[in-house]
Specification:
The protein is globular. 27% of the residues lie in helices and 33% in strands. The chain is of the alpha+beta class. The chain starts with 8 loop residues before the first strand and ends with a helix. Bound molecules: fe (ii) ion (FE2). Fe (ii) ion (FE2) binds next to strand 9 and strand 13. It holds the Pfam family Glyoxalase. Its EC number is 1.13.11.27. This is 4-hydroxyphenylpyruvate dioxygenase.
Length: 341
């Protein structure tokens, strides 16, 4: 066993969604440029794909995902992680404190443990083609030109006050994630603290957000989602401006950024090679340091309180900490509009 990577994690295999309105989720996936390709022959589960991002849409009316949709509304009910050996990953995870999911609670015949907020975390062996093995091609697939989204760069968990240590320990002690960053962010009226953890193979990160008070956006999420869960998924693109051009007319809305933001950002991050007028026009956020930078943008709440981030990295491994102030102001404005603050 690799002591630094005890469960042999190699990346994210899929993210599974459920909810009361599957049509709405399907429209969002298609708007983002996913292709609709396969269905499960025995269960109401459909597979969408864009490059190495695989989404499953679970419409089962009984069982875990149905219960999950009733409890949370539109939600992420399961995730698959790629591992070297699925049975060994399960045995190791359980030996290190995870709890195995019984067969009756699973919609896929892969070993699994309980994850954040009672979601299911499946172990999928590298090289196993889930869609060729367990699914069949749709009679009428919807094949689309992709919009440049390559892989899930990171996913963020929201947990209640006091939950951060518990969930950081889950990822660190069981799976060998390591802490890469700690933030303490203060907006004008609200704030949050966050730990960022990196998977032991380095392929993705899980920042964990904890609210500072009952009014901030994390607390609002926890009320709406009715528990801890995934706050956002970040899609990696190599050309965020081209991806945003491709999203034009899709109806996907991103957060508005103050014009004032662009008056100083290129001084703060001077090395940006992309067209600055187009960055401003698309309201893309910029962050970085002497070694590199990243470009990022956030959708409005997208699936219940879950949103999507789009990120392009140029030799920079952060999460946009330098933008959190600007972003918080934008989110606070949004909360004010909705009467929460
Ligand atoms: Fe993020």
């Amino acid at each position: 066993m690799d002591t630094a990577n005890p469960c042999g994690i190699r990346g994210i295999a899929f993210t599974e969604f459920c909810g009361p309105d599957l049509g709405q989720l399907e429209r969002l996936f298609l708007a983002f440029g996913f292709s609709k390709l396969h269905r499960h022959p025995a269960r109401d589960i459909v597979h969408f794909r864009q490059n190495d991002i695989h989404f499953l849409l679970n419409g089962e009316r009984e069982g875990h995902s149905a219960d999950f949709a009733r409890a949370h509304g539109p939600a992420i009910s399961a995730m698959g992680w790629l591992v070297d050996d699925a049975e060994a990953a399960l045995a190791t995870a359980v030996a290190r404190g995870a709890e195995a999911v019984p067969a009756a609670a699973k919609d896929h015949a892969y070993p699994a443990v309980w994850g954040i907020g009672g979601s299911v975390l499946y172990f999928i062996e590298v090289g196993v083609d889930v869609y060729a093995r367990d699914f069949v091609p749709l009679d009428q697939p919807i094949v689309q030109q992709d919009k440049g989204f390559l892989v899930v760069d990171h996913l963020t968990n929201n947990v209640p006050i006091g939950g951060r240590e518990q969930w950081a320990a889950f990822y660190k002690d069981i799976f060998g994630f390591t802490e890469v960053r700690y933030f303490d962010i203060q907006g004008a009226k609200t704030g949050l603290t966050s730990y960022a953890l990196r998977s032991p193979d380095g392929s993705f990160c899980i920042p964990i957000n904890q609210p500072k008070d009952e009014k901030d956006q994390i607390a609002e999420y926890l009320r709406e989602y009715r528990g801890p869960g995934v706050q956002h998924l970040a899609f990696l693109t190599e050309d965020i401006l081209a991806s945003l051009d491709a999203l034009r007319g899709s109806g996907i809305e991103t957060l508005e950024i103050d014009d004032a933001y662009y008056e100083e950002v290129f001084e703060r991050v001077p090395g940006v090679r992309e067209d600055r007028a187009r960055i401003r026009e698309h309201q893309v956020l910029v962050d970085g340091d002497a070694d590199g930078y990243l470009l990022q943008i956030f959708t409005r709440n997208f699936i219940g309180p879950i949103f999507i981030e789009i990120i392009q990295r140029a030799e920079h491994l952060g999460f946009g900490e330098g933008n959190f102030g600007a972003l918080f102001r934008s989110l606070e404005k949004d909360q004010e509009r909705r009467g929460v603050l």
